[in-house]
Amino acid sequence: MTTMRRALPIALLLLAACAASGPLRKPNEREWSLLMADYQWIQTLRAAQKPPPETSTRKQQIEARLDQHRKVQPTLDVFIGKLTEYHQRTGDARAPAILAREKIFIGDEYVNFLSRYDTGIARYREALAIDPGNEEATKKIAEAESRRFVSMTAFASVKPGMREGQVQSALGMPREDWIKQVVQKSRVYAVWIYPRSDGGASAVYFDNGIVYHTNWNAAAPARPKP
Hints:
The chain is α+β, with helices and mostly antiparallel strands.
């Protein structure tokens, strides 16, 4: 009995030591510095990706961008998992800003390069859910909403003879699956389709990258449900 009584304090000390050596439950600079070193490496990987040549077609630009994402994504996924666990465990108020920043970055990619505004807006809203006071996410939502549909005024500014880059400046980039392209005897014919707020669609037609025709009513508006 005496031996057990002597052993009990020792066991308690060992348990306390194990608990102290476990993951910290409060924000701490050691873990945060390690996480930020990982994040800096991700930024370095992104910066090292070479942009596609300016002469690349819209489809080639998208393919290059997606390939860049595939190279960085495994490292990013590991980092996000570690940062999320750290935030849930410690409640460090610095973590949500980084998590929201990544949601905004992904949203920007969907909006600016893939023209998938619905998905981009969803990522911005996720950023707001993580960091409710994030003014950048709020601003991005408003901007993306204003660009989802082509306006008649903007479409009317596109004229025959304009190049693809000029059309992108006037109307934005179409989604990759709304670009149709046919090659005939060394000539590349393409059509870019833009959705309208009434459910219809407009189209710009290219011959070797030069506009030769536009059609505001390329697709009829959606019929109202009975």
